Amino acid sequence: MKRKQLAPHIHADQPAAERYIYVLLALLPAFLGAVFYYGIRVAILAAVSMSCFFFSDFLISKHMYPDHAFHVDYSSLVSGLLLVLMIPASASVWTVILAALFGSVLVKQAFGGAGANIFNPALASRAFLEFAFPVQMSAKEAPFQGTWHLQSLFTGEPAASAAGETTVGWMNILSGRLPGMCGVTVMVLILIGMVVLIERRIFRFEAPLAYILALVFGYVPFYWDALRFDAFFAWIACGGLILVAVFMLNDCTTLPLDPKGRFIFGFGAGILTLILYRFANSTYAMVFPVLMMNMTTPIFDHYLRPRAFSRTSWFREVQK
Question: Which domain holds residue 81?
């Protein structure tokens, strides 16, 4: 008998909890790389974030939806870990707690819980921090500077300035030894996580492929007046774009169901990324394009849905 579970996993042979366990396993290399470069405080922030997400989801589900049993699908742990990988290692515990509560209460549970949220909870939490704590979020701590710097866990003061500590060279780009957020610079480790997702057959190529194509082919016309490909690869390494492509653009809850819709979704997110990076800043380009495209997912699901056999247009049949 097939186990009953929530959308969007209701028709999947793989249980939702098992799927998210594999996503956590895929995130493990990037997390270990973040701990190696930025210290034990990354592990502490991750533990706080994941705990807040999980217990907030559990308590709200128990009291707001008493008729529905709480499904331990580990999606809250994935959101908590992704949030920490997208913030500077010098962030304070308080900011992480507030962001986790924002993502759990207002972004996820307010819409009905797992499978019903419109926006990606981790990205929405990161967007909240960008507006609420812009100074902390703009800090770029150099690798190996704050390994045991724990006294600022509650104040959010950087252990050392990133200026002049690390040069942006090809070896540093490939290894991830760059100033920036916790887990976005370790591209090789993120790609190892992608291999895990592909091996477990939970990686869908349409949105990430369209996203990367838009970035690669759109970079030339957007930066024709100042074309530098070393700057392009440094931006890819430091801007969190690989993390977004591999994990945020594989969120089956907030992406369109149809492959054509996912391709358009990813391409639109890539174009918005180029626009925001050119006219705003790199953090906006990481966070907001996917959130903006999340709002279009219901439209894609309405007009781009696999038609039933012998039906030319499913929604016209429904309207009759």
Answer: 16-319
132, two tokens: 């609420």
Name the one residue in this structure whose structure tokens are 């997110």.
Answer: 269
Cα separation, 16 vs 120, in Å, equals 17
Give just the sign of the alpha carbon dihedral 275, 279, 285, 291: negative
**Which pairs with CB-CB distance under 8 Å and at least 24 residues apart come from 185-191?**
185/37, 185/237, 185/238, 186/29, 186/30, 186/33, 186/34, 186/37, 187/236, 187/237, 187/242, 189/29, 189/30, 189/32, 189/33, 190/29, 190/30, 190/242, 190/243, 190/246, 191/242, 191/246
Does residue 1 belong to any structural domain of this protein? no
How does DSSP classify residue 181? B
What span, in angstroms and rounded, lies between the C-alpha atoms of 10 and 23? 18
pLDDT tens, residue by residue, 260-271: 999 999 999 999
Please tell me which of 53-62, 68-77, 306-315 the model is most confident about, judged by mean pLDDT. Answer: 53-62
What does the pLDDT read at residue 10? 45
In a domain, 240, yes or no: yes
Give me the sign of the Cα torsion angle 53, 56, 60, 63: positive
User: b/e map of 117-138 (b: 16 or more CB within 10 Å)?
Assistant: bebbbbbbbbbbbbeebeebbe
CATH of the domain at 259: 1.10.3430
Residue whose tokens read 């970035």: 215
Q: Please count the structural domains in the chain.
A: 1
Mutual angle of helices 75-85 and 121-132, in 10-degree steps: 40
What's the CA gap between 183 and 187, in Å, rounded? 9
184 located within any domain: yes
Q: Is residue 53 part of a domain?
A: yes
